[in-house]
């Protein structure tokens, strides 16, 4: 008897020793002087410069673009005219092309409790050349507005591309610093992978959807000129049955379109795109994903469609991380991890970008990371095991 319990004690000691070694190995130490302040940053007030309405009556505002098809030579251009349908046409031309083309948008409005949206326009253009600068104009007459964007190179293994990563942005003073930080980065991101949680309008009473409008005006300075690839987060759910709002994701899906049909998805909340040398799969952790669900079935096929010769980089975007040990949102991604981690491993997913957790953790001490030159990720990615993100750290999660 006693020898058996000795053995148990020895085992326990050995495990404690191992744990000690692991803790030692896993301790990344302190890597930054930065300590988050205890004050929560305030939302920028309604009269802030970043929320300014463009001059003129009913001028297009909240202009934003996203990828419009699977290959990358399509774009969806969206904008809001606040008080009347106004012109629903986009005029566009390539930098070296002489002729201007016209494309017609769709238009919708929605209500949320006692809020009525402006006229939301979405215009799909999918006949663009790859690797080209395009100009586009919306609105009419004196208050017509002009923007531009670049299409990505045709998908292929040797086409460099720089993605920016932003998640959990909100509209606080820190959100503005985050966006400015991204814009001022010398690496110059060409498209934003947005990891969910956009406006945080749901923190307001009755989810005051005017805060969706302010957010749209705030990010226009970037999102009108380069595509933001959208992922849905918990702040997009907007499910409030006590005030009669029972359609999840209503403001988000009305305002932000995605090219989901191009990848055979049935929902704008999960889809995939190719962009340059990357194949990007966007998942929704707030839509059902259990066995036999549409998302599950779609994803199973999706992994088979990836051609690593064409797009060597396989990237997954999902709002809720599979791995972290922070106290907030602890293990919220666990059921999804159990379901999908084996698929990710089997399909050799290169990197998963997530948002949601407003904390920094890392699991390696020293980095000697050599990335192939085909994609310029290191700008925002410092370590493959870690989720690095820009966030308005400090507001409500
Ligand atoms: C919506 O209802 C709230 C609370 O009753 C009120 O403060 C707000 O002014 C209303 N907004 C509109 C557009 O009616
Ligand atoms: C937001 O940032 C921009 C660019 O850095 C700056 O011009 C603007 O004044 C800022 N606005 C607020 C409300 O912080
Ligand atoms: C994968 O992509 C390469 C390069 O574009 C192409 O040559 C090949 O035919 C593709 N394979 C399949 C199975 O489609
Ligand atoms: Fe979140």
Automatic annotation (TrEMBL):
Required co-factor(s) are: Fe cation; Zn(2+)
* Molecular function per GO: acid phosphatase activity; metal ion binding
State if Metal-binding is listed as a keyword. yes
Where's the Calcineurin-like phosphoesterase domain? Answer: 162-360
Q: Which Gene3D superfamilies match?
A: 3.60.21.10, Purple acid phosphatase-like, N-terminal (2.60.40.380)
InterPro entries the record matches: Calcineurin-like_PHP, Metallo-depent_PP-like, MPP_PAP, PAPs-like, PAPs_N, Purple_acid_Pase-like_N
Q: What is its EC number?
A: 3.1.3.2
What domain of life does the UniProt record list for this protein's source?
Eukaryota
Q: Does the keyword rRNA processing apply?
A: no
Q: Where is the Purple acid phosphatase N-terminal domain?
A: 60-150
Recite the UniProt keywords alphabetically: Glycoprotein, Hydrolase, Iron, Metal-binding, Signal, Zinc
- Which interval of the chain is the signal sequence? 1-28
Enumerate the PANTHER family for this protein: ACID PHOSPHATASE RELATED, PURPLE ACID PHOSPHATASE
Tell me the protein family, please.
Belongs to the metallophosphoesterase superfamily. Purple acid phosphatase family.
Official protein name in the record:
Purple acid phosphatase
